[in-house]
TrEMBL record:
Keyword Magnesium: no
GO terms, molecular function: acyl-CoA dehydrogenase activity; flavin adenine dinucleotide binding
Keywords in alphabetical order: Plasmid
PANTHER family named among the record's database cross-references: ACYL-COA DEHYDROGENASE (PTHR43884), ISOVALERYL-COA DEHYDROGENASE, MITOCHONDRIAL-RELATED (PTHR43884:SF12)
Record-linked Pfam families: Acyl-CoA_dh_N
Transmembrane segments: none
Keyword Nuclease attributed: no
InterPro entries (UniProt xref): Acyl-CoA_Oxase/DH_mid-dom_sf (IPR046373), AcylCoA_DH/ox_N (IPR013786), AcylCoA_DH/ox_N_sf (IPR037069), AcylCoA_DH/oxidase_NM_dom_sf (IPR009100)
Protein name from the UniProt record: Acyl-CoA dehydrogenase
Domain Acyl-CoA dehydrogenase/oxidase N-terminal: 11-106
Length: 371
């Protein structure tokens, strides 16, 4: 990851400000990620990318999460939006129009398909409804949580799934620019952490979505194809956070050869490495398109592992961690890991889906196989 040395140092220096939502530093985040080439990894060279696979993008995003979950969350939104354009069957003109600005960080892409992913799993209904008109679609509804939404003056593009009227064969997936008539971005949500992630609500009130902004006319076919990248990139967040906490725990324990925590830290690192290998091999083989249950279990296991890693860092730090200003990085990671189970699809939602299907849903896949 030597190519990201400058980015990593910038993140180390500004992680607290990004978490707190400092306006100036937060505005610099997307250009910083883009200038390091983060968004070009796994994008075909014919589209201006660096080539390679999605796993390279995940590894790079995990290295960002080691230093700032706010930055990784924004990076996930941007890189996932890029994947939407690469996957959509009707997205050719949009790829030509938007990809250069997305790769360079001049355009912010917001992943508004959380509702769509929950709909795909039978968790909730589609939040947006549309009806065709002369120019495309008139859309109503709201998306309650969308990240990487710069202000409407700064500009952004957001993806969403729209339910077609009765009698239409399929819901569709479309993108909307910030200046879309009838589209409103609320002020940033009042989060307890990750406040620099530009997370807000999007409201559609007879919003005019142009026909040429449709990524794919058949969401039921499109979403399973893009879900492995949606979740795979998202799993870079617990991977990176867990790696950092375990590294910090080992550094604290280096002075205590007899500490009872050495074993749990080593075991947790081994579990993290095994889960990472399973994620990368599954994505490389394309198995998660059909076997989404294994991908769901991987998310549950990685979030649990990240929580355990932060807890081990806390125990290795001891009472010093509870003194104001003495372990600020750890306290930030504590708040960050509390967010991981809530990111759509949430851990509870995934466990519910797995339980309803009669599938195991707790602990790491390796442990489940041994039961």
């Amino acid at each position: 990851m030597s190519r990201f040395t400058a980015l990593h140092q910038w993140l180390e220096d500004h992680a607290a400000q990004l978490d707190a939502g400092d306006p100036q530093v937060s505005a610099e985040l997307l250009p910083q990620l883009a200038s390091a080439g983060l968004f070009r990894l796994g994008v075909p060279t014919e589209y201006g990318g660096a080539g390679g696979s999605i796993t390279e993008a995940i590894e790079a995003l995990a290295s960002v999460a080691e230093r700032s979950l706010t930055a990784a969350f924004v990076g996930w939104g941007q890189r996932t939006f890029i994947e939407y354009l690469l996957t959509g069957r009707s997205a050719g003109p949009l790829r030509e129009q938007l990809l250069p600005g997305l790769l360079s960080g001049e355009i912010a892409g917001a992943s508004g398909l959380s509702n769509a992913m929950k709909f795909l799993s039978g968790i909730e209904q589609i939040s947006l409804s549309g009806r065709p008109d002369a120019a495309g679609w008139t859309v109503d509804g709201a998306l309650p949580w969308v990240t990487n939404l710069r202000t409407q003056d700064q500009g952004f593009w957001a993806a969403a799934m729209v339910a077609a009227p009765a009698g239409s064969p399929h819901p569709l997936v479309a993108v909307s620019p910030a200046h879309t008539p009838g589209l409103t971005r609320t002020p940033d949500l009042d989060l307890v952490a990750l406040r620099g992630s530009a997370t807000a609500q999007l409201r559609f009130e007879q919003a005019q979505v142009a026909e040429h902004h449709v990524l794919d006319p058949d969401a039921a076919d499109y979403l399973p194809r893009v879900r492995p990248a949606f979740l795979g990139l998202q799993l870079a967040l617990p991977l990176g956070l867990a790696s950092r906490s375990l590294a910090e725990a080992r550094a604290r324990l280096a002075r205590f050869d007899t500490s009872v925590l050495h074993g749990p830290v080593a075991d947790t690192q081994a579990e993290l490495d095994a889960l990472s290998r399973q994620l990368h091999s599954g994505l490389a083989a394309g198995k998660f398109v059909k076997d989404c249950a294994e991908l769901f279990r991987l998310k549950v296991a990685l979030v649990e592992t990240a929580s355990r890693a932060v807890d081990l860092e806390l125990q290795a730090t001891g009472g010093l961690a509870y003194l104001s200003g003495r372990a600020d990085g750890l306290m930030r990671r504590w708040r960050e890991q509390a967010f991981l189970p809530l990111i759509t699809p949430s851990v509870v939602q995934l466990q519910t889906q797995l339980a309803q299907a009669g599938q195991p849903y707790g602990g790491t896949p390796a442990r489940q196989a041994a039961v």
